[in-house]
Amino acid sequence: xxxxxxxxxxxxxxxxxxxxxxxxxxxxxxxxxxxxxxxxxxxxxxxxxxxxxxxxxxxxxxxxxxxxxxxxxxxxxxxxxxxxxxxxxxxxxxxxxxxxxxxxxxxxxxxxxxxxxxxxxxxxxxxxxxxxxxxxxxxxxxxxxxxxxxxxxxxxxxxxxxxxxxxxxxxxxxxxxxxxxxxxxxxxxxxxxxxxxxxxx
Amino acid sequence: xxxxxxxxxxxxxxxxxxxxxxxxxxxxxxxxxxxxxxxxxxxxxxxxxxxxxxxxxxxxxxxxxxxxxxxxxxxxxxxxxxxxxxxxxxxxxxxxxxxxxxxxxxxxxxxxxxxxxxxxxxxxxxxxxxxxxxxxxxxxxxxxxxxxxxxxxxxxxxxxxxxxxxxxxxxx
Lengths: 201, 172
Fold this sequence. Notes:
By secondary structure, chain A is of the alpha+beta class. Chain A contains 4 helices and 6 strands; from the N terminus they run αααββαββββ.
């Protein structure tokens, strides 16, 4: 029947168009970031918003504690350190505030904002800003993340930290950034532990 | 992992995109499929099929969960066994005479197919998988793939005949 032949031709044409669709490129770096710890420990992928917020809160606590420890160590250093929230214009987010009491009595406030969730289209922006993976300009897996349990959910958390603090994540502090504040983005699992990092500025 | 994604990601994404008709859902499912690959690689048996069909099978299971959550109405018509024929689009505009519009009509007709028929058309007709490969993805016998594809094509052909008849009337 003529229409059957037409149908086959139309399906062939649709097939050519269909096979021209490629996988989203932004997923590749996300999978790369997730891959390291998963490959080692295995795990079942599940995504929950609550886990992401909990992860951000834990990271915040880590950042705040690091600030307190740094203050405790030296009286010659800066008198206070504050991790502050960094909002990204145009992106909706829910700040996760926390605070901890410093030794000197002052309160060290820290607010970590999950600026992007590594899910769906929102994470597309991550890859679009990543021309290469061979420097801290792009996300690199953290050495301290080796052996961690698999992260079922990943969040990108932007924090401000001192260059010297990179050492606690197993990284060599940038020569030109060790003495000043850095704006960094961490890929954090739902357990609150960072998997990858990149320096925003 | 990156190489696997570059090689097989397109198939997984296209399949889930065409089935779900939702780019965000397709991206999420594709992500979950490749994350699952990291943890379930040991379950892959090369003797039972190719990696692409295995990944597509994982995608399909994720996809059906998605459809169950989001498209219950569609799932109420899981298969078209005994179902009425699709109505022809014979009331459509005259410009449907053009082949381009016939293609669009078939594409739209595919979207109207029940998921069980749509997936077999996607795999066999669009992805050009063999019946055996499609059977591995769908976890059904090869004969079932043949019969589903036959029914799907019959419905699409019926729709197309309606388009052509309508075009002839307009032309005459």
